[in-house]
Amino acid sequence: MSLPLIDVVPESRRRRDEELEQAGWLRRFTASPPRLIEIRELYESLGHEVLLDPLTPGELAAECEGCILALSVFRVVYTRAADVAATHDSNDPERAG
Prior knowledge:
Blueprint: H1 11-22, E1 26-31, H2 35-45, E2 48-54, H3 68-73, E3 75-81, H4 82-90
């Protein structure tokens, strides 16, 4: 299944990318099942945390903006190494302890 994404990253996704990057996350790519399961298992087997972040309507090409199916199954894949996660989580009062 191919998903037409827009060429320019919307401001909302840029802000989300920056927010996650500050917490040690690295944006990898956009995918759908069953690849999401395979990718999650692969990165976790390598000692990484995996975050699957939903798409927003603004990230789709105009002809797909109303497609609820695309928004419900496609995810932006982010990863971070376990040692990076421990550092960031220990500095986050909501996640510490």
